Amino acid sequence: MALYSIVIPLYNEEEVIGECIRRVVSVCDGIDGECEIIFVNDGSADRTLELAANACKSDKRIKLISFSRNFGHQIAITAGMDNAAGDAVIVMDADLQDPPEVITELIEKYNEGYDVVYAVRAQRKGETVFKKLTAKAFYRFLRYMCNIDIPVDTGDFRLISRKVCNVMKTLTERNRYVRGLVSWVGFRQAAVEYVREERFAGETKYPLKKMIKLSLDGITSFSSKPLTMSKNLGFIAAAAGFIYMIVVILQKFVFGKTVQGWASLAVLILLMGGIQLIMLGITGEYIARIFDESKNRPLYIIDEKYNFNGD
Ligand code: UDP
Ligand code: MG
After folding, report:
1. C-alpha span between 111 and 281 (Å, rounded)
2. How far is the CA of 33 from the centre of ligand 1 (A)?
């Protein structure tokens, strides 16, 4: 019988976890096959760990990995994949924005022979206009920037086959954009549409800062276009400067006008300084990531594991 691993990252989800377990377990009961539910506690500061550990005691299908601190959503998913034993691995959020019932549809597609079945958000409920707009814009911007085809309006809610999971385990990059990596590995991929529900309870664990970090990871892991663009911008600025220099020289020697006014000069200096800083910053983003990679630290540190064989 097929074994399905359901990976669910948890970060301060005490208000959600009970309902999450109830709904996921009821989906598992209806599935033709066995299930393991792998919770990854990403350094929660509330009662999440306690509640998840209790659930492990009453149901052996529920497993738990607890990190030593908060490593971030993408790393938590990675740890879940690394520890999953299933023939297929399903990743979903704890807050029930990804309805567990969709898992059945993902598995149906998987049984048709697909290796990656991703869930596309046909509609997003209960999220701020700001979040919806930035997310929409970001997915399209990323597609424009990247050399690979990353599906738009698609989060990490998806199913991957054992084959894909094994390949994912060999990709050890640190600043991870998991959904991009899954597209990058290839294989037969299919989509299932779903309506993204409102968060069941609690607040989003993705404040603007984390959203920006995730977007930068997405862009920098899959594209070097920002570097090319900053180089091109440099050329344009230099060419404009050169043309202006000729204009100034002509004014002085042909038309006999002396250049006056410091205002235009100040504007130019500010503009050029700004452009240079932006370009340096873009380069810096890449260098910071090279730095991270070269340290070669482990991706995550596990504090405790529950219900895994031999632990
Ligand atoms: N999450 C995590 N670590 C973090 C932030 C979030 O494991 O540092 C988990 C969180 O518990 C949830 C999932 O990632 O299961 C998605 O987070 P959230 O629902 O807050 O994001 P949103 O849906 O608002 O983008
Ligand atoms: Mg959510």
Report:
1. 47
2. 28
